[in-house]
């Protein structure tokens, strides 16, 4: 039985992961902004076999709340076996280009808040000397593309932070896995013109994430073919790449 902390617990991918863990009888501490949605997720997980479900209402960009949230989590579960950070937004690139306030807000939500949470959590895991920190980044962080380079910048920062944190935590028996989804059929991607063959179902993605956590993968592309897609994109020379609009 795992004790699982999920931040961004009402997102499509996080909810799918939670449902899979609930069927294993796991215990949960859920964190998200909406009390109503947290209540719905709690009821669903309890019906699916979760041993216990507690939740905490918090905006991930409220840095002052990160410490108290973790204290409540430890009080409820005593220890964290898996912490999954899964919150985020998909910014409007054009708005970010035109308004620096919007750009900085999106960087804070998708990048700085994740780094803040990881810093707080890492110190707790260092005391435990066990457990897994699982972080949802994105393939968008592998190369800055004109269509979403603000989002890609935030995710690149998260991925690089995780790489260094993984090396630090290895020495105390804690694993850090960076999860890089491609296109996933979620409310965040609704309305986008995405190639259907490359769009994954959240349930499929969740199964791959749980498998990757159990195998202690370092970096997990989901689905796996995104590793090869991004290798190709990263290999395109700059003099060609800057003429594209991908």
Structure description:
The structure is a single chain. With 246 residues, this protein is of the alpha/beta class. It has a single domain (3-241), classed as NAD(P)-binding Rossmann-like Domain (Rossmann fold, 3-Layer(aba) Sandwich). The chain has helices at 12-22, 35-48, 66-77, 93-98, 100-128, 149-170, 202-215, 225-235, 238-241; strands spanning 3-7, 27-32, 52-57, 82-85, 132-136, 175-181, 219-222. Helix 1 (12-22) crosses helix 7 (202-215). The mean pLDDT is 95.
List the helices and strands and how they pair.
Elements: E1 3-7, H1 12-22, E2 27-32, H2 35-48, E3 52-57, H3 66-77, E4 82-85, H4 93-98, H5 100-128, E5 132-136, H6 149-170, E6 175-181, H7 202-215, E7 219-222, H8 225-235, H9 238-241
Parallel strand pairs: 1-2, 1-4, 2-3, 4-5, 5-6, 6-7
Helix pairs in contact: 1-2, 1-7, 5-6
């Amino acid at each position: 039985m795992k004790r699982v902390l999920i931040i961004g617990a009402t997102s499509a991918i996080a909810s799918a992961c939670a449902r899979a863990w609930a069927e294993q009888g796991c215990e949960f501490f859920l964190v998200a902004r909406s009390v109503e949605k947290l209540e719905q997720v709690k009821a669903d997980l309890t019906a699916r076999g979760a041993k216990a479900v507690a939740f905490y209402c918090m905006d991930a960009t409220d840095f002052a709340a990160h410490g108290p949230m973790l204290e409540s989590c430890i009080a409820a579960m005593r220890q964290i076996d898996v912490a999954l950070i899964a919150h985020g937004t998909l910014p409007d690139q054009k708005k970010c280009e035109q308004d620096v306030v919007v750009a900085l807000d999106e960087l804070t939500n998708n990048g700085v808040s994740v780094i803040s949470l990881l810093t707080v959590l890492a110190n707790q895991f260092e005391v435990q000397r066990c457990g897994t920190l699982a972080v949802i980044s994105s393939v968008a962080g592998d190369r800055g593309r004109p269509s979403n380079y603000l989002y890609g910048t935030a995710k690149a920062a998260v991925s690089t932070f995780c790489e260094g944190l993984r090396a630090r935590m290895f020495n105390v028996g804690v694993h850090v896995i960076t999860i890089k989804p491609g296109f996933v059929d979620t409310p965040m991607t609704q309305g986008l013109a995405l190639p259907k063959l490359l769009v994954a179902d959240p349930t499929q993605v969740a199964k791959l994430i749980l498998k990757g956590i159990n195998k202690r993968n370092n970096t997990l592309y989901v689905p796996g073919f995104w590793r090869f897609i991004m290798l190709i994109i990263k290999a395109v020379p700059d003099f060609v790449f800057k003429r594209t609009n991908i």
